[in-house]
Amino acid sequence: MIKTLTSRLRTLLKGSSFNKSFFEELEDILIEGDVGAQIAMEVVDQLRSGSPKNETDLRGELKKLMLRHLKSLEVHLSPDSLNFFLVLGVNGVGKTTSLAKLANHFRATLGPEKILLGAGDTFRAGAIDQIKILGDRIGLRVVHQEQGADAGSVIFDSLASGLSREMRLVIADTAGRMHNKQNLVRELGKIDGIVRRKIGSGTYHRMLVIDATTGQNGLRQAEVFDEAIGVDSVFLAKYDSTSKGGIAIAISKNLGIPVSFIGTGEALDDIEPFDSHAYLDELLGAE
């Protein structure tokens, strides 16, 4: 079994002498934990020059240095207009399940009558049925068409329905066929244009779901979606004890995109607003 970043750091820090080999191993652990080579080298160089006296000092300084690179965003809904979340992500990252977790999270304060889901992934087989099932499970209406329908039309209908019914929140799924980047970018551009023209005074948020276990490939995914239409925040899915987890830092540092939510399990209530301090405490094995 591959050790996680957290367990490897905890093992290294216990009773170690802060010599050359220690800092070299620390750098390797951070890189292999998906923090990224540039960040790892920068952080370790600064740690080395700081001459930490003990494990507590080093762990505290390591957290302080990594906090400089990690951005978080607390998502607040506009109280006076429609809020529209466009959920992005490649196939297989848990995008539709994360969408349902978001809806369930806001359902607790808004109630089911003020939230609408849009089945904008008309490409993946089973995507429409999946979001309909999840919508039924949490008591939310789903705007949908048939598989293969124009995704832009579904997004337009979702927005129109949300506005006419005076909804507070509409959350729409999108296709994530990363293997065909050109078509993906073209479709997202069209959808983005529809939302911007239709939303009026409403609030528009583009949220990218990243699988915490996918490593540096997650950074490349974020680059593609950010280049296509821009990304306002990241939902870090599948973050549990098996994850390496450092990809959130790499995305924040390289692209300036904050993390807003974290998925901690399979149940629909396994979602938490992202807390950078708690995230780093867990990642660094704070006791």
Q: Which descriptors apply to this entry?
A:
287 residues, alpha/beta, Four Helix Bundle (Hemerythrin (Met), subunit A), Rossmann fold, 2 domains, eight-stranded mixed beta sheet
Can you offer a commentary on this structure?
This protein has 287 residues and is an alpha/beta fold. The chain has 2 domains: 2-68, SRP54, nucleotide-binding domain (Four Helix Bundle (Hemerythrin (Met), subunit A)), CATH 1.20.120.140; 83-274, P-loop containing nucleotide triphosphate hydrolases (Rossmann fold, 3-Layer(aba) Sandwich). 48% of the residues lie in helices and 14% in strands. The chain is built from 11 helices and 8 strands. The chain has helices at residues 5-13, 20-32, 37-50, 55-67, 95-110, 127-138, 151-164, 181-198, 217-228, 247-255, 276-283; strands spanning 83-88, 115-118, 141-143, 169-172, 203-211, 233-237, 259-263, 271-273. Strands 3-2-4-1-5-6-7-8 form an 8-stranded mixed beta sheet, with helices on both faces. Strand 7 and strand 8 (271-273) form a beta hairpin. The model has no long low-confidence stretch (mean pLDDT 90).
Number of beta strands: 8
Order of helices and strands: HHHHEHEHEHEHEHEHEEH
Q: Which structural class fits the helix and strand makeup? A: alpha/beta
What is the helical fraction, as a range of percent?
40-55%
| Poorly predicted parts | none
Q: Rounded to an integer, what's the Rg over CA atoms?
A: 20 Å
CATH architecture of the largest domain: 3-Layer(aba) Sandwich
Number of domains: 2
